[in-house]
Amino acid sequence: MITTRGLGKSYDFYEQPANLLGALRSLLRRELTTVQAVRDLNLDVRRGEIVGLLGPNGAGKTTTVKMLCGLLVPTTGGLSVCGETPARRSYPFLSQISVIFGQKSMLWWDVSTRESFRIHKSMYEIPDDDFSEVVARLGELLDIGGILDVPVRNLSLGQRMRCELALALLHRPSLLFADEPTIGLDVEAKVVVRALFREINRTFGTTIVLTSHDMSDVEALCDRVVIVTDGGAAFDGDIGELRARAGIARTVVFTYRDTPRLPPEILRASVESGAHSVRLRLGDQPVATLVQAATGWGDLADVGIVEPGLDEVMSKVFSESGRRP
Ligand SMILES: Nc1ncnc2c1ncn2[C@@H]1O[C@H](COP(=O)(O)OP(=O)(O)OP(=O)(O)O)[C@@H](O)[C@H]1O
């Protein structure tokens, strides 16, 4: 579905002078600055996958997405998306893809969502029957039936995001780019959006490329993650491999019916301890050995093994790549 080889993009721009003197000088001589936003990126996405494109701020994720959907022309390298060259923006290409930018509205601001849908319908030549069916289905799934006739400027952020999603899915794209699609949504709306992504992926086989700083989105959705740092791919694999790469040990939590009598060395090594519980890092020792020892510290009620949070994992991988999370 997507292949990039040696993909690169640099931006040239003139820096804004910091003060009046600088501004006067810049009338005579301006300094051109180049930022290498994406460098030598090799990426393969197969049909039907949900791939997370992750990385710290400024890593080059949005620039990559913009090249993949044809909004930006690469400076170097080659890419093929749905068998086409995105920057040519041919009709067969555009009718197969869709893009959601969480920070940018694709809806017309002054008219209702339904009007934007109608414009979209004519642009994509969606037949009347298909259109009615998809609007009804998305209206129900996203709970927007009651707000389709409200001017977009009067919608709350969460309501607008639901409408943005519906607009993006109207022509049933086979490839969806979603750049921070859950930004600003409340917890309930995020769950709805994730469920919707899963559903369209399962039902229509839609391939999804997602960028998000919300690790719950990533855990809930992504079969595979590609971590971009400084414009290049620093990791490509599934979340299990990513956890292994970060090398953060799992922890085990022992919960007691009474207050446990913890040996001093256990107390010192604990990640946290409370009146009725203690949390320890699982090092090389077998879990069974630790559980056996834990039964001797008090009236053991429960044992739970906790994977490191994806936020912690990402933070470690980003910092190892020399970038802040
Ligand atoms: N239009 C532009 N002109 C000049 N530089 C740009 C432009 N757009 C992005 N950049 C620079 O390119 C680099 C990558 O930006 P990009 O927006 O692709 O990162 P990102 O990974 O999406 O970041 P974030 O997570 O903060 O959204 C940054 O250093 C940014 O300042």
TrEMBL record:
Limits of the ABC transporter domain: 22-255
InterPro entries per the UniProt record, alphabetical: AAA+_ATPase, ABC_transporter-like_ATP-bd, ABC_transporter_ATP-binding, P-loop_NTPase
Signal peptide extent: none
Any GO BP: response to antibiotic
GO CC, any one term: plasma membrane
GO MF annotation list: ATP binding; ATP hydrolysis activity
Membrane topology listed for this record: Peripheral membrane protein
Predominant location category: membrane
Gene3D superfamilies: P-loop containing nucleotide triphosphate hydrolases
Subcellular location field: Cell membrane
UniProt KW keywords: Antibiotic resistance, ATP-binding, Nucleotide-binding, Transport
Membrane spanning residue stretches: none
Name recorded for this polypeptide: ATP-binding cassette domain-containing protein
Species this protein is from: Streptomyces mimosae
